[in-house]
Amino acid sequence: MDRTSVPAGTKWDGVVGYSRAVRAGQFVFVSGTVGIDADGNVVGPGDAYAQMRQALANVVAALEKLGAAPGDVVRTRMYVTDIGAWEEVGRAHGEVFGDIRPATSMVEVCGLIAPELVVEVEADAVVA
Q1: Would you give the DSSP letter of residue 19?
Q2: Is there a contact between 81 and 119 (Cβ–Cβ < 8 Å)?
Q3: pTM for the whole thing?
Q4: In angstroms, rounded to a whole number, what is the distance separating the alpha carbons of residues 111 and 63?
Q5: Exposed e or buried b per residue across 81-113, where buried means at least 16 C-beta atoms within 10 angstroms of its C-beta
């Protein structure tokens, strides 16, 4: 089976030893992705909606680099540091996946890799 990966391009990939996404055959797995722009800056520090929109843009970009699209996503997982922000995070998720409706979960966590980050998302896709 062919395996292709896309680097995360963050300061953490080398330290942790991970890729932004990996495609193995028809399956694509996108790692936990946060709201960091191409320059490595946190988008909207403390703003769950802004961070989720950027994180999802990063997810979509990774999918596309591996020949997948949002419509191929079958599962997402959302991690938030404040479950009270669920509507903002859910609204951003719905803007990308509202018609696709992948299986999903949203879980409150005590923290992410940097204190200014408040949301992280993973995605799994199956390319037909």
Answers
A1: -
A2: yes
A3: 0.95
A4: 26
A5: beeebeebbbebbeebbeeeebebebeeeeebe
The model's pLDDT over 82-103, given as tens digits with 9 standing for 90+, comes to 999 999 999 999 999 999 999 9
What is the SS3 assignment for 28? Answer: strand
Specify whether the CB–CB gap between 25 and 127 falls below 8 A: no
Give the span between the Cα atoms of 28 and 86, in whole angstroms.
26
Q: Is 37 exposed, middle or buried (0-12, 13-18, 19+ CB in 10 A)?
A: exposed
| Token digits of residue 97 | 């996946």
Length of the chain measured in residues: 128
Report, as ranges of residue numbers, the positions in the chain whose pLDDT lies below 70: none
